[in-house]
């Protein structure tokens, strides 16, 4: 990711539910600022001058301060694309706050300042984001046949590795791959986590103990 002379800047952030540095607005804002600084040295000067005027009580750890600085830096670009991946993995109430800030504050500000700002939000539908994004254009990968085919092919390839490593019969691997693909419900991350977990087992006995119930996790949280 970076700055393209033709298409402007691109910044991204990947959320992770089990990482305190990747599941809320503050680390997202810091990451966006850091990427913009790398792409445009004038932003570095702006942030330095901005922080120099702050009192110690108004330090960069404040959410509002980070939001204001990030909004200024983003909307001063001629064109910028923002990619937020895994927003469904945020801490409770964070997704709503983040989306509302972008829709209610950043996008209107960008439009008024002549900045062409595009926002791409990626994640699984979990009931929290649908209402906020219901009027926005959407691409639903879980309804695309080729997406499910990719999950099935990935599961088969990983199952073949499992068979080779833990001396499983090919038909057992095929059953595992089919079950993982079915239970994934269109979520590629689920298949990756389950298969990676199985391949990380150190011994055949550990693997057999994991598979003793002959079941795969029912969802990503259980994986």
Automatic annotation (TrEMBL):
Keywords assigned: Repeat
Nephrocystin 3-like N-terminal domain boundaries: 9-121
Signal peptide: none
Name of the protein described by the UniProt record: Nephrocystin 3-like N-terminal domain-containing protein
